[in-house]
């Protein structure tokens, strides 16, 4: 089994190193090969997603990804920006189904920004469509306005679009996932305003006919953002488009204690997957050795389960993470009174020790 390891920028290399340590101690004989991606690849090869990196990703059974991006690249032409690497990988490999589980571990109930009773026992799954929507819709760009409130002035535009097959396949993924959980899907849309999301709602409703054992509810995205902090445990599986899913998953991360706790899996129809924390490269804390590696370590567990057929090893990693939290070890983002503050490497070492 071959894994492409793409650390990227900022805290990416720090957190991926910890996940690699954890994978190595399992002794599964995984073949891991690293390649530059994002800003690091731009520096090394003049492109955020070099041919060789894409080739390695294509040839691998799974990809372990850190994060890309830094403020210093924000003025580059868009195709050269680090973020194009992750968008390019998702598109090139057809990774349309993004799983972002928001689980509040018992030990971290106090680290959440919500009251303990609202998050204790929380286990929700956000399923974000990942290769369509306004992220990839064409046309997009800048031009001189021909109409609108200021004709003749400069304007910018993007295109929000979804095709029926794109919605059907992500809806099926959500209903299938709900079947293995609490059998409830909340489809999040903006059908009251956007044609794209009225269509989304209609298609999800049609697909639901094949899943009568699963409860389907529809919710507008603004309400969903509110309900997520009002009564998050009322959700089971949330399915939504690329942009709403991006925003709601960051919001949901705080229910678990920190964005440093939220893993993700991005899958295509061949079960090949890219595994990355839901957070970014965190330039504000990069190089300080304080980033929380648990989201990345938990993403590695998802990789073992979804792409490598190693469910038992995945269970072991998740149990080790819980054990380390039970020992009271905390990176600064999840630290609270009475617990022990540790750095990125110490946290990774503790998970490795718990696995031994
Ligand atoms: P971010 O997720 O990188 O950081 C947001 C905040 O969360 C920061 O205060 C950061 O310190 C904190 N944080 C994030 N991960 C953490 C961790 N593991 N442990 C502790 N604290 C953590 O989002 P941002 O600041 O908006 O973006 C920074 C860069 O990352 C941008 O260039 C953005 O485009 C990029 N980004 C990349 C990805 C990706 O590679 N998939 C995802 C999101 C953002
Ligand atoms: C994420 C990130 C990416 C996204 C960016 C970096 C392109 O925010 O993975 O959540 O918007 O999908
Ligand atoms: Mn995001």
UniProtKB/TrEMBL annotation:
CC cofactor note: Binds 1 Mg(2+) or Mn(2+) ion per subunit.
Gene label: leuB
Chief place of localization: cytoplasm
Entry keywords, A to Z: Amino-acid biosynthesis, Branched-chain amino acid biosynthesis, Cytoplasm, Leucine biosynthesis, Magnesium, Manganese, Metal-binding, NAD, Oxidoreductase
Classification via PANTHER family: 3-ISOPROPYLMALATE DEHYDROGENASE
Matches recorded under Gene3D superfamilies: Isopropylmalate Dehydrogenase (3.40.718.10)
InterPro entries per record: IsoCit/isopropylmalate_DH_CS, IsoPropMal-DH-like_dom, Isopropylmalate_DH
Site (Important for catalysis) location in chain: 135, 190
Cofactor: Mn(2+); Mg(2+)
The species this protein was found in: Melaminivora alkalimesophila
Coiled-coil region: none
Annotated GO biological process: L-leucine biosynthetic process
Cellular compartments annotated: Cytoplasm
Name of the molecule in the record: 3-isopropylmalate dehydrogenase
Functional pathway: Amino-acid biosynthesis; L-leucine biosynthesis; L-leucine from 3-methyl-2-oxobutanoate: step 3/4
């Amino acid at each position: 089994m071959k894994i492409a390891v793409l650390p990227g920028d900022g805290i990416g290399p720090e957190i991926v190193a910890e996940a690699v340590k954890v994978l190595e101690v399992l002794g599964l004989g995984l073949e891991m090969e690293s390649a530059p991606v994002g800003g690091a690849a731009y520096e090394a090869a003049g492109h955020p997603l070099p041919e060789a990196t894409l080739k390695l990703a294509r040839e691998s059974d799974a990809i372990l990804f850190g994060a890309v991006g830094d403020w210093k690249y924000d003025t580059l032409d868009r195709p050269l920006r680090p973020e194009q690497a992750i968008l390019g990988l998702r598109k090139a490999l057809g990774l349309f189904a993004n799983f972002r589980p928001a689980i509040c571990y018992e030990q971290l109930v106090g680290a959440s920004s919500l009251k303990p009773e609202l998050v204790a026992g929380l286990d929700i799954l956000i399923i974000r469509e990942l290769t369509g929507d306004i992220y990839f819709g064409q046309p997009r760009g800048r031009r001189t306005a021909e109409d609108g409130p200021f004709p003749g002035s400069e304007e910018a535009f993007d295109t929000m679009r979804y095709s029926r097959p794109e919605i059907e396949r992500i809806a099926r993924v959500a209903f299938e996932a709900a079947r293995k959980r609490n059998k409830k899907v909340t489809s999040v849309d903006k059908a009251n305003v956007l044609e794209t999301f009225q269509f989304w709602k209609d298609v999800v409703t049609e697909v639901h006919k094949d899943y009568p054992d699963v409860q389907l509810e529809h919710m507008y995205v603004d309400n969903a953002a509110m309900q997520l902090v009002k009564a998050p445990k009322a959700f089971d599986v949330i399915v939504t488009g690329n942009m709403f899913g991006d925003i709601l998953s960051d919001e949901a991360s705080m229910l678990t204690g920190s964005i440093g706790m939220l893993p993700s899996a991005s899958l295509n129809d061949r079960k090949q997957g890219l595994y990355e924390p839901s957070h970014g490269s965190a330039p504000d804390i990069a190089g300080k050795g304080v980033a929380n590696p648990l989201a990345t370590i938990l993403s590695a567990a998802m990789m073992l389960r979804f792409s490598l057929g190693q469910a038992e090893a995945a269970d072991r990693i998740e149990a080790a993470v819980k054990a380390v939290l039970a020992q009271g070890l905390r990176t600064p983002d999840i630290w609270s009174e009475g617990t022990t503050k540790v750095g990125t490497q110490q946290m990774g070492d503790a998970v490795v020790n718990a696995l031994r």
